[in-house]
Give the backbone structure.
Amino acid sequence: MLKTAVGKLTRTNALRMCAAAACVFAGVSASAQSVVFLNPGKSDEAYWRSSADAMQKAADSLGMQLRVLYAQRNRLEPVAMAKKLAHLPQRERPDYVVFSNDYSTAPSILKALDGSGIQAFMAFSGIQDDLRPQVGMPRGQFPFWLGSLESNAEDAGYLTAQALIQKALKIPALRDAQGKLQMVAIAGDRSTPASTARNQGMRKAVREMQGTVVLRQEVYGEWRQDKARDQAQVLFQRYPEVRLIWAGNDLMAFGAMEAWRQQGGVPGSDALFSGINTSQQALDELRKGQLTALAGGHFMAGAWAMVMLYDHYHGVDFLDEGLELQRNMFQLFDARTSQQLEQHFAQTEVTLDFRAFSKHRNPQLRRYQFELAQLLR
């Protein structure tokens, strides 16, 4: 998750880096439960690489075989991948496909998989209301669509904005001439449900401090560092008294911090920045005090989905908990908890025991306990 720079690819890493559905499983028992993850991100993108790495750790722990196909941020590629999988010879098709609804691609992906015999599960983001007529509910219009699991993304926006504001309240020099704290927000995109929910959480934190915090403007950085940098340069010129910068992910926070440095500022000192995601750079910036608030844990949604699919494969359905699950996966990080996270995920050889979270393995479990803190313990 944490170190995206890689040297020589190991055999396992090479398998994860497959970029087309024609890749074959290698070195794994043919009888093992097979899963393909249609990863919407780039293979060198910290968040989506960390998500895939966590899924691989879950697969290794549970004896499943996992193949990750990266869309490289091409909005049409996940649909093309799904079509390729559906047209593979029957014996080469995976048992399950895990996909995300980034850029509202869920309807097209489900249509592409229809009739293939592959079972599908959506992770990381849910179905927004305007797409519901196209897809219905899981196990309805598309019976092979088993369900979904997403983090409560509103928590991320709320926790980071609240922490940002609370820190700023202790620094009088950050207030404007009227004694208020001025903030700008650099959000992700307009269509991904998780992005929308993060924004809602951020606005909730601002509303709670109405009269003290002024949200001057929201822009959409499309999750990109370069675009956020350019937008921040304009915002800082437009609102010279802004001292709080909330960002919908870590890359956009880095872009805004870069823009602040370019005009002679010092992030964490004369302006405060927040981010979401637990990349190595984000954890480093947090410990140096240049990033004031950081939330993460949602990268685990795919790994927790693997646990649910493992149970489903072994006859233990998650239906009793619901078909579209939303769980509180986010937590704020500090120096101590960021260190714990690194210790467990920075090294590829570190094993994690996901069997403890399986209902098939632990029949006494009545509800999935998908908490990062519990896994780290």
About this structure: The first strand starts at residue 34 and ends at 39. The two ends are 18 Å apart (CA to CA). Confidence is low (pLDDT under 50) at residues 1-29. DSSP finds 13 helices and twelve strands in the chain.
